[in-house]
Amino acid sequence: MKEIRHVKHAGQAIFKDRFTVKAKELLTPWSPALQGSYGLLGLPLSKTSISHSGASFAPSAIREALQGYSIYSGEHQLDLTESILDFGDIIMHPTDLLANHTRLYEGLVDMYQTKAAQNWFLLGGDHSVSYASIKAFKEQYQSVGIIQFDAHHDLRNLADGGPTNGTPFRRLLEEGIISGDAFVQIGIRDFSNAKAYHEYAIEQGVTVYAMADVRQQSLPAILTKEINRLKEQVEFIYLSVDMDVLDQAFAPGCPAIGPGGMDSVTLLEGISCAAKHKQVKAMDIVEIDPTIDFRNMTSKLAAYILLEYMKGKQIK
User: What is the pLDDT of residue 1?
Assistant: First the structure.
């Protein structure tokens, strides 16, 4: 049968340059025979958010945003050639929120147990998904430290609403899954938290850096100091990136936007700096609502964060 000329498959790039590889082409559907440096799983839960959120759409939006980037770092003259093994998304129950946390945990346990990847990318979803992800990660890797980039402590009490995107680290601490002395919060913002939760963090031994600390000390300096400290206590480090750590000018797609946060270059430098350390093995990215984003700015930044992490691992 004669082919129809000048037709491409739906969904393919509008234009193809023979010399350019798009970052989205690194995504490779996982199968049990595959192993690699990077694994990715979508955690599309946002009904547990205490504010309106369409963050369940973020995993797909971030994957699509990778199409806007090449795999070549001109600054370091290197290509990112390692595949990202894509495990897909956890299927969410439409109404049972507690069951969804169980589903996330069980799916993440199964994924980590494959040992298919050396580094893991988890795409939320609201920040409540970090509870399940870190719990499963700790079960697999045992000795774990946490670095959280966030405007908020996310240490709210559970009595006023149960497990939400404001409670993941409270649950992890109360259940003994993580310890305060191996937990670092960076970017905590003025007028964004209650006094009681700051005091709780200090009581638990959490190391807290406010945005003023980031401005005064620089993010790479803070990360180098804290990762070197954590390396004396734990074998593996997990990064949790709440995109509302960024100033509203750089992350308009966050449900809880506000002024006074990081700029995008600062966060990207921090991710690259952290990834250079071999102990850093996983990163979640949470709190992006593509339905309120402007020109996909926030999803594009999240995709860039993935590439910065990969670059950091390669340049060391």
Answer: 65
